[in-house]
Design a protein that fits this description.
By secondary structure, this protein is mainly α. Helices cover 50% and strands 0% of the residues.
């Protein structure tokens, strides 16, 4: 099953930055807060793949649609 790409460039950039920042805090925090930073893998993964399962369920897309040539 292939995931639909439904994230636009700005959305992907924001998710990448948020995910990277969260993962960057891993070494700076003590447990159990340290393990919460692993939640940064979610926005990082969706940014890399370009698809968000929650957006798919809700029918949302921030990706710019390219016009089709007839």
């Amino acid at each position: 099953m292939m995931m639909t790409r439904n994230l636009g460039a700005v959305d992907r950039f924001i998710r990448f930055v948020v995910g990277a920042l969260a993962l960057g805090l891993y070494g700076a925090l003590e447990p159990p807060g340290r393990y919460l930073t692993l939640l940064g893998l979610i926005p990082l993964g969706t940014a890399i793949t370009g698809g968000c399962p929650v957006y798919t369920l809700l029918g949302i897309s921030t990706r710019r649609q390219t016009p089709r040539n007839p």
